[in-house]
Amino acid sequence: MLRKSFIAALVGVTGSVGAAVATTEIPTQTPPSALAFDQKLSGNSIGMSYVYLPEDGYAAIYRSDKNGRPTGAAIGVSALTAGAHRDVKVELKETPKAGERLWVSLYKDSDKKPGFDPGKGDQAFWTKDNKPWEGQLEIK
């Protein structure tokens, strides 16, 4: 989506007045985002209040290593179409313990093939700080 910004200026030269108009196209795109609070498990799934993806993609859930960073293969993945989603549930293949921190990472479906294939076909969305988009939550 492009938003056009119009700049109009009146220019006075030796008593005459002219008008100059310039057009600048500014790209606008909502960045990917997710909102997930610390929570108790609901069966074997976690819930995210909100997820926005600018392209079709995935919300993936990872465990934390001893330093608190995401580690290993995703323990849960939800495929999502581009756009805003509320009350997203992600089924987990493994059951985290109370007090464990989990990471949410957002990916775009770069290869357009079925199934989540991080790093090979599906790529992480990146923040404006040039880091993969991720957030964390704690299991209560």
Keywords:
140 residues, mainly beta, Immunoglobulin-like, five-stranded antiparallel beta sheet, three-stranded antiparallel beta sheet, disordered N terminus
Describe the structure.
This protein has strands at 2-13, 16-27, 33-35, 45-53, 57-64, 70-80, 83-91, 101-108, 123-124, 134-138. Strands 5, 6, 8, 9 and 10 form a five-stranded antiparallel β-sheet that branches. With 140 residues, it is mainly beta. Helix content is 0%, strand content 56%. The protein has a single domain (33-138), classed as Immunoglobulin-like, CATH 2.60.40. 21% of the residues are buried.
Concise synopsis of the structure shown:
This protein is 0% helix and 56% strand.
Helix and strand content put the structural class at mainly beta
For the record, give the distance between the C-alpha atoms at the N and C termini, rounded to a whole number. 41 Å
CATH architecture: Sandwich
Q: What is CATH's topology name?
A: Immunoglobulin-like
Indicate the overall shape: globular
Mean pLDDT: 84
Annotation field: number of helices:
0
The biggest sheet, with number of strands, parallel, antiparallel or mixed sense and barrel status, is: 5 strands, antiparallel
Question: Strand percentage, roughly?
Answer: over 45%
Helix amount? under 10%
* Secondary structure: number of strands: 10
H/E element order: EEEEEEEEEE
Highest CATH level, the class: Mainly Beta
Extract low-pLDDT stretches: 1-19
Q: Radius of gyration from the CA trace?
A: 22 Å
Q: Indicate the multimeric state.
A: single chain
Q: How many individual domains?
A: 1
